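Most newcomers find our protein records easier to grasp once they have seen one. To make this concrete, we reproduce a full record directly below:

===
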Amino acid sequence: MLAVYLRGMLISIALVTSIGMQNLFVFNNALGNKLRHSLVYALFVWIADTTLTVIAFLGMGALIAANDTARLIIMAIGGAIVVWIGVNIIRGAKAAVIGSEHDETTMKAAFVGAWVVAFANPQAIIDTSLMLGALRGTLANWQVAPFLLGVITSTALWFFGITIVLGLLKDRLPKKLLMWVNIVSGAIVTGYGCVLIFQVLQAII
């Protein structure tokens, strides 16, 4: 059972550490908010990510991938949302300063944002679902629970660990670092959204 648990942790850490909207969201919150607030926001991200993981593990991505029309519609909508997120990140970049507590993210905005960054990327949902769905087929019924526990433990350690580290170190970082993080991350997110929309247009044309 321990081996299955550790296997889930290793696979999960490989997925969660890649640069994506969730990590950018966690980085920004950790640098721009008080530590106690950013830990709550990290909890929101972890809950949303855990929900996505369970859905993916049940093979939702495989169902979407099997229906071309549904896949294209979801990718188009998701791509538009991703572009919108990226543009707004860039627009707010100049005002983003480490330690600027009067501009802290509200609880409602953080909660909604956590679910958006988890579910707005349709390609990630499909890819993750296909991979986890395939892994599910290699597990016996008794192995499912420890494997999933390993996955969500790993994501919890990552999201909360990054939040704590950045929260403790942010006072030693340049004040304008958050602005540049937002500019770069906004450009990456916007570009990725455009790629999703381009893929949809290619498939249609």
